[in-house]
Amino acid sequence: MSRPLASSHYTPCAWGSDCRIPLDDLSPSGISRHLKEHHFRDQSAPWHPKNRGHCKWWEADGVCNKDLNYASFGKHIAAVHLQSTARPCPNCHQNLGRADSLERHIKNYCPRSSRAEKK
Length: 119
Known about the structure:
It comes from Rhodofomes roseus. By secondary structure, this protein is of the alpha+beta class.
């Protein structure tokens, strides 16, 4: 699977109130790499995958503030805030945030899928 790149348009980092560095890789790992390099360099709060913290991604209605493991920040930002991992259902065309969500949707919930378990 190819990485979603931001080269065709400007996608600034919205972590905190003052970053705005253009993100060159919108994949979860690319976002995690940016966070580690630019936002978790302070030794008083070092990056560790099992550490927990709040998402500081800014949107029109304010900061996200969702509590997550550091290891989940990249996946969360890509799926929720940037929707760079979104994939449409081939049956009903609903957009799902990640490939695993799409699989689960087709298997269990899609009203147009023959695979969906009818409840």
